[in-house]
């Protein structure tokens, strides 16, 4: 990593007392009720670019008093283009750019950051941001693997004063909060099983729609070593840089990039049970050039004696209906509503429940929820507790697919074993 980042890690808590005795809250800006939130974004590629437009939109239309004041990216072409957008869309706001995100984090006038880096960099950016006293929104999946997830989990627990959220936008859908209430009331009786999926059909190869920018040249417009971070050093590969989700060293593919959208709110609705046994298979059925699988099938057993089956594909868009089965009823979560149909023989004594939920832009709702929590110091929709449980699923399923074994998780010892 660059020397400025190393210096930042050594000096971020420097002062009259040592870093071991100063809290992140001591060097975070205290927000007043009428203050504008000042934020930065680390990683300005595909998802980062979308976030830039969204937060600039909030600034302009009055949705929330937020100023996007800093961007960081190891790629100069992306950073320059994103700075142009952020400056043009926020009249009167000074937006600064940094090639090293440590320089952004060193600014005490920045309240919070959003990280939209590739998955393998999420962990380090989160850890550094928390240590710098920033509230954090991280793109999903929370981290690349379980070891990193445990590091983040411990760090977030060690900084309860910080607002942390995982950017899984379906957590903003009201139907899942309604489902959580109904399940807590026992409308399904004992939970038995659930199912969900994320399936789509991309004939040209999933994530190949990310174009190759020939202007990205390591040593000239890209700091390739900084992009790799803690990953093993390799020669620059433009396909890995632009389409890293296709490669298993840098992404868990369908599992981490797609399935987390569906699994995360289901785990939340069922009150965050731990996956304790995971099996999975994957295959290359159409896209033989992609290193990650183009079809996956998962089975999870949770510590509340309930099983979930999950399907993911990039070669056929027909998936499984999202639902939860209990002994006394079934909950259907397709569309915007939450519907419960009693199961025989209990149906004679119970009415069907249908809760209609207002349609919302889930991604913007999640973003605004995070900003509100940053201002009001509240707990956001998508928390570290749910994020950690999802990462157990992601990691164990990935191991199972590539290793051909079933894996178990001990939530007390926080340990993985091959079954």
What percent of residues are in strands? 15-25%
Count of DSSP H/I helices: 12
Number of domains: 2
Tally of extended strands?
Answer: 16
* Major beta sheet summary: 10 strands, mixed
Which strand order does the major sheet show? 14-13-12-11-7-10-9-8-15-16
Q: Mind telling me the CATH class of the largest domain?
A: Alpha Beta
Backbone CA Rg = 22 Å
Cα separation of the termini: 38 Å
- Low-pLDDT segments, ≥5 res: 1-26
Q: According to CATH, what is the topology of the largest domain?
A: Dihydrodipicolinate Reductase, domain 2
| Residue share in helix | 25-40%
- What structural category characterises the helix and strand content? alpha/beta
Reported CATH architecture of the largest domain: 2-Layer Sandwich
Order of helices and strands: HEHEHEHEHEHEHEHHHEEEEEEEHHEE
Identify the overall geometry.
Answer: globular
The CATH superfamily of the largest domain is known as Dihydrodipicolinate Reductase, domain 2
Question: What's the mean pLDDT score?
Answer: 93
